[in-house]
Design goal:
Blueprint (H helix, E strand, L loop, with lengths): L4 H17 L23 E8 L2 E8 L1 H12 L6 H19 L10 E3 L3 E2 L6 H4 L4 E9 L2 E10 L5
Helix pairs in contact: 1-3, 2-3
């Protein structure tokens, strides 16, 4: 069977974290300790909407440890402010989304990526993106865990 959307998005996310944040996925031998990693709790979510050839959005929910490490690694600081952490998470979401949306665009038509933002704590994004297809995946990195959801609709997804 061919590679699924989830597999492709996972590869895009891992590559982005490696290049942008110097973070790496857990090795197979480290997976037995993955249950001990802090999981995302919905308090640090970045949302990116897209439209054009395909319509939808992507949500990245980062664990606290991962959020701290993203900002520290991207900014080259030991301790980042909350605003810097949110900005770094939005930038990661923007990069991953920008590399993901072409998967959903028919005939290489253009998708427009809207500016990323931090989701409100009580915002139900499943309702925001209702009636759309959804892919969910988890990225286990040496610095923490990211849950990624992508919602999409297009006339004829690839």
């Amino acid at each position: 069977m061919s590679t699924t959307y989830t597999d492709k998005i996972h590869d895009i996310a891992v590559n982005t974290f490696e290049i942008t944040c110097y973070m790496f996925p857990l090795e197979e031998w480290e997976m037995e300790d993955a249950d001990l990693l802090e999981k995302p709790d919905g308090t640090s979510r970045s949302v990116v909407h897209f439209d054009g050839a395909a319509k939808g959005g992507m949500v990245i929910d980062a664990s606290g440890n991962l959020l701290d490490a993203i900002a520290a690694n991207m900014l080259g600081v030991e301790s980042a402010t909350q605003e810097e952490k949110e900005g770094a998470l939005c930038e990661i979401a923007n990069i991953i989304c920008g590399n993901t949306v072409p998967l959903f665009a028919k005939d290489e038509n253009i998708c427009y990526i809207r500016p990323p933002r931090i989701a409100k704590p009580d915002e139900d994004l499943d309702i925001v993106f209702k009636d759309m297809c959804q892919e969910k995946l988890q990225v286990l990195l040496d610095e923490g865990v990211a849950d990624i959801s992508i919602y999409y609709s297009s006339e004829d997804p690839a």
